[in-house]
Amino acid sequence: xxxxxxxxxxxxxxxxxxxxxxxxxxxxxxxxxxxxxxxxxxxxxxxxxxxxxxxxxxxxxxxxxxxxxxxxxxxxxxxxxxxxxxxxxxxxxxxxxxxxxxxxxxxxxxxxxxxxxxxxxxxxxxxxxxxxxxxxxxxxxxxxxxxxxxxxxxxxxxxxxxxxxxxxxxxxxxxxxxxxxxxxxxxxxxxxxxxxxxxxxxxxxxxxxxxxxxxxxxxxxxxxxxxxxxxxxxxxxxxxxxxxxxxxxxxxxxxxxxxxxxxxxxxxxxxxxxxxxxxxxxxxxxxxxxxxxxxxxxxxxxxxxxxxxxxxxxxxxxxxxxxxxxxxxxxxxxxxxxxxxxxxxxxxxxxxxxxxxxxxxxxxxxxxxxxxxxxxxxxxxxxxxxxxxxxxxxxxxxxxxxxxxxxxxxxxxxxxxxxxxxxxxxxxxxxxxxxxxxxxxxxxxxxxxxxxxxxxxxxxxxxxxxxxxxxxxxxxxxxxxx
Length: 482
Fold this sequence. Notes:
mainly alpha
């Protein structure tokens, strides 16, 4: 952001910098880094030149700024190794922010040798110098710990969070609220949790978890908010963009089914993949469905199977696990002919039976029972058994499966009452139809006997009879009277 400074002030700093004043050189670097409204355009390259001049004189802020430039790639090509070198020089002079950035590099082992112990020491020294973000980082580290590297110490973590929160750090305020809610490092206290959460929100912090919770409330119509799937979708997207894996997975489902948003399989596929990368393995099920049906990506049942198997890792929801078993069975059941979509996978009925049985043993999935009924009826993957087929169809039909209901209706034996109700109306209808047809045939014959043609013929015959009896004889007839 460009700062405001008079031209006279800029000239004063410029003259001092040209004269070799390290403070002025570092200041000129700041001016070019941010830009000065109406006087200096933002120029990171020139800023880097001035920072180097100040750093070469051992100016601690100059050393830090050069290190930051290499870490961020602003004004110079990004180089984590060089960034770590310059940050180390600034650390040696006691620069708190440099300590934090060097600690980050050591935690990740990027640009510097991985050294968790030294990284913690740097953060603690930085926090001791008043760096709020370092205190917040330490709070997170001790609250959660790092396996085989940092022992969890929630009491110590809570103390660092309080230190950062008292300095105004909104994220630390939120984490304190979470600590009070769960009793992490402090006695559980829901009321204090509400106070700290409200303070965090007033300080401008909205954690992914907070946004996610509000999204769920809008989806369910809970916590005093009306049910609004469009609002829920918007909030799930916001939380997902903040790195919330479950929110990303939910957003993928929303796009897949068109819940609160316009149905978009491409978006569903992309968000499901992002969710998996965030660690939300449940979203792998959605990726699998996209691959199975060719929604948002090319159809491929082999890849779909890989995603379904991946989704099973760590799956603790019994119902969802049963459904994934069914999806796996479905791929084996219909193979490359599934819904007319081409795939390299061939039907494998024995494997379909195996996964269907696992699905059925786990939970009542109507589709699984319906498919199992079909396999028993056709004798695919199992010995043909009409009785078992019907047993599975009955279960599926009771669960509302329409396909199973149709199968049952087509094959069930009707009672005498049902036969009576079907045949009596049918026979009466046929009798009535025969009567109507007979009536029309009779009327047709009657009308035909009294047709206009017959009437005309009769009239002509009558006219001839009259001529023979009444008409005068022609002239010249010898029999005519005189």
